[in-house]
Amino acid sequence: MALFLNQLKVEKGLAKNTLESYTRDLKRFHLFLKNAKPSRDKVIQYLAHLYDQGLSATSVCRHLTSLRQFFKFLLQEEKIKENPTSDIDMPKTRKKLPQVLTEEEVIRLLDTPLQNVLGLRDRAMLEVLYATGCRVSELVGLRLASLDLKVGYVRVLGKGSKERLVPMGDMARKKLERYLEESRHHLDKKCDQDHVFLNQRGGKLTRQAFWLLLKKYAIKAEIEKDLTPHTLRHTFATHLLERGADLRIIQALLGHSDISSTQIYTHISTKKLEEVYKKYHPRA
């Protein structure tokens, strides 16, 4: 398994979180097998076992994908003679449209942090997240050298260590500049940190810490939707599309390698059009 994971890391450049997911999936399958030999029947039994454990079809699909890639690797390395997953169909999943915030909800959220050291930091983070559509891991991973505030761009390190330049609006740039000028030096106690967003101890802010902050601000802003960092990413893309942005541009901004990952936002916009039509058309 170590050789397989190393190939994913070195040749395919998969992110740490993705590698950890593959590791968990393969270990879980190994525990299920005990000492039995992998076979098509065993894989089918395992998938049924996952359903019995309460996993969704989406999660089962992810497990099957992990197994497919692993056995494909073993086949290429001539460790096995046939892939036991080759003719097993993926479970059918219902595509759930992600929640997005309205523009009014976004404004309420952005206006929630206080005008103090931590509040200036949090306002800058929220503004950058909504202005760029970056992932939370990309946000907390931003370094000072990643910023070009004169031009208004951030250099984002995305999945598979792929870099992309993302423009940033004036409001986000101003809030970020204010945080850097008035707040950050109070957090960078040793003056040796190059991460943009720091915690109270002067270290890099974590994804989990930002998630908790976002939950706190959602309550204060009286947003009843299940607000996560990814909700702001979805909101960023949806608002761009609703204002006429090209889907290919949104794909590049989000860092999607495949346009199919971006096309979900067309469904969100269609849903919005239907809601407006039903609300305002006299014969709807």
> What characteristic shape results from the CA principal axes?
globular
- Please give the CATH architecture of the largest domain: Orthogonal Bundle
Indicate the mean pLDDT. Answer: 87
Query: Helicity, in percent?
Result: 55-70%
Largest sheet at a glance? 3 strands, antiparallel
Q: From the helix content, strand content and strand pairing, which structural class follows?
A: mainly alpha
Order of helices and strands: HHHHHHHEEEHHHHHHH
- Counting DSSP H or I runs of 4 or more residues, the number of helices is 14
Report the CATH superfamily of the largest domain: Intergrase catalytic core
Unreliable runs, pLDDT <50, ≥5 residues? none
Number of strands: 3
Helix-strand blueprint:
Blueprint lengths: L1 H9 L5 H18 L6 H13 L4 H20 L26 H8 L6 H16 L3 H5 L6 E2 L4 E5 L5 E5 L2 H13 L1 H4 L19 H14 L8 H14 L4 H8 L4 H4 L1 H17 L4
Antiparallel strand pairs: 1-2, 2-3
Helix pairs in contact: 2-4, 3-4, 6-8, 6-11, 11-14
